Amino acid sequence: MNKSKWLLTPVLVWLGLFLIVPMLIVVAMSFMQRDTLGNVVFSFSWEGYKTFWDSLYIGIYWDTIVLSVSTALICLIVSYPLAYYIAGSSPRIQKWGLILITIPFWINFLIRTYAWVLLLRTQGVVNNILMHWGWIDEPLQMLYTKGAVLLGMVYNFIPFMVLPLYVAIEQIDRRLLDAASDLGASRWKAFWHITLPQSKAGIITGSVLVFVSTAGMFVVTDILGGSKSSMISNIIQSQFLGARNWPFGSALSVIFVLTSLVLIVLFNQVMKSRSDRVKEGKR
Amino acid sequence: MNKKGHPLLSIHSILLMIFIYVPIVLVMVYSFNNTRLAGDWQGFTFDWYISLLQDRNVLDALMNSLIVAVVSTVLATIIGTIAALSMRDLGKRLKAPMNGLLYMPIIIPDIIMGISLLVLFSQLHIPLGKMTIMIAHITFSVSYVYVMVSARFAGMGRQLEEASQDLGATYWETFRYVTLPQITPGIISGALIAFTLSLDDFMVSFFVAGPSSTTLPIYIFGQVKRGISPEINALCTLLILVSISLILLSQYFMNRGRGQKKRNTLPF
Fold first, then answer.
1. What is the value of pTM for the model shown?
2. CB B24 to CB A18 under 8 A?
3. Residue B175 lies in a domain
4. Stronger pLDDT, B41 or A218, i.e. the higher one
5. Residue A26 to residue B139, Cβ atoms within 8 A
6. pLDDT for the residue A275
7. What is the pLDDT of residue B67?
């Protein structure tokens, strides 16, 4: 059995070298500065973090959080009924529902985002239909707006929300619901006191997944938002590939990851205290 | 759950599914539309597919994508399978942190993985190109292969391997004739997922590709930013079909010889 322990070496070396070390370098680089030529100078500096406090970047940071939280919230609201429906259906519908909701996972998000350009642009499908029916006389400007970005994000991440929710709802013991209805609880009451708190894990997983993925997605803002709206990931991207201010880009990355972690912990706490309250209320 | 779903519930579900699929179907339909302006339907044509196949840039990008996908799939599959194999015998104390490490590439946001690899390569003065894309793809694919092969191990007992060793087979003979055949479906489906992920990846590749090694998704991104073109609809349609076929194939292998019970084996 000892033989298999050294078999871990390849994966340890690989992930150490190409996952852990690079991230440590980014953290280190966030505390450095750059010289006039744009090269990174190896001397300690808070410059990257100081720049972040500029009102421009704080504004973008705040926009990113608002957009990511809205995306997660809207995804949760529209996905929950679908997950609930699939979980409560016959095995055949369950199977097909799951297949249909998983397929978009394997379609490149670039393509899924681009599809909305076809729909939203001035000569796009939506405008054509609205004009054809005579609802509007002039095409609406839908592309390159904040609404388009939000729509693109929600669209991309609905499957990320449905699957964890489905898994959580499907695992709920049906006898609890039977008991609730035997004891005279209305369907809504049973849902509020049993289904919702019991699917907490799915709500947390889905929301965190959507939040983190949204915040890191600069492509949707690029394609559907034009140059008007940007997010922290757009700034990180341009600091690394355009402006070549790597220490600042690294500092933003560190802030991004830390924010995600803090929000994950916070969210966990909020959900926990809510379900505790529900438990107490039941008694 | 409640047996009788509320009618509103099913209406909502159907509308949401339509919302999800209309844009995807639209791209596919428009790839056959006989107009460059792509406003209304102007009749059916294969022209865009034909001009796609004559486009030097597309073919170069396709070639790059395929080379990267093949090499990174092979290496990720080997490393991931070995990891799954050795994790079985690990004590509880080591197992938890190792599992954490192996799941990290799935959890870390793509943009962070992309920029950190870019920083590493530049510090080591490794020129960006196909090689750096491969390294990046192996790094995120390893975890998915690990998940798929481990899932296979989880559903299989140890009795056959123990019997084999009781009967005098060496460690390697047992591996070769008993363990490997049993986990082969898991390895194949892991490899297919690694291949799909590599073919589809944009975010990480975008940072480590360098100017001379454009992959298909990077090419699509460049074109999409410039505006609509029917060739892109055709290219997207092809990529959609290839990805979905590969994943269905992976599901088929994962479920083969395993009974019908476990259907949801996707790593999410």
1. 0.89
2. no
3. yes
4. A218
5. no
6. 62
7. 97
